[in-house]
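Supplementary notes for students who missed Thursday's class. We covered one full example, reproduced here. Read the sequence, then the structure, then the short commentary at the end.
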Amino acid sequence: MSHMHIPDGVLPFWLVSAGWIVTLAILYISIRWSSGIKLEQKLPLIGIAAALMIVGMTLEIVPIAYHINMSVIAGIVLGPALGFIAVFIVDLIIAMFGHGGITVVGLNTLIVGAEAVLGFYLFRACLSVLRRGGISIGFSSALAALFSLMLSTSLMIGIVHISQINPSEALHNDVQNSGQSIVSHERGYLYEDSNSQNRRIDTVRFAKTVLFLGIFGWVLEAAITGFVIGYVSRVRPDLIFSKAT
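Structure (token representation):
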């Protein structure tokens, strides 16, 4: 749900550049952090988690326009650093299939990567508190998924607000009204036509729509996360409680 399906050329250059810079910095830290682990044991898990995320992120649940990221599952199983790396790989691959632009990969990695990182730490925090009351591992992971998705969706709304671009209006105007913009080379300003105000997104309306539809998706994804992590904890508990990577 929190993945932005925005093609190249819509968001401001400074915003997508900042997304790439921050993402590359986090990737560098993640690689350095995970350099001490035995990658031969983790690489198959990264591949499996990435494959599951690709399947989930390319299948849309039609009534609510939602897709299951499974990034929290990846974060809990792989750890925050490897989980973030797996999210970057997934975002890069699906961007090559037109699922969002290549320039948007940096921002999308930050949003979905936040789910993986927050999911890991929230799961460990919930488990340390709730397990004393006999609450299951599955329920703790479901809670972690629910709050991680809420926060990542809020981050996505914030990025869209900062961009001040309405993607649908921008794309529509670019196709229908190309040539209506008047560039003043003498003054160095760009004057746009009277529809330029429509290119700015109504953030409040956008947030209300996304958050309303998102609730149904968050609950569904939280239930799936709880079931998967609960099952994995019974058959391979070492995957759930291994050292953070």
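Commentary. The beta strands are 182-184, 189-191. Residues 172 and 199 are 9 Å apart (CA to CA). If anything here is unclear, bring it to office hours.
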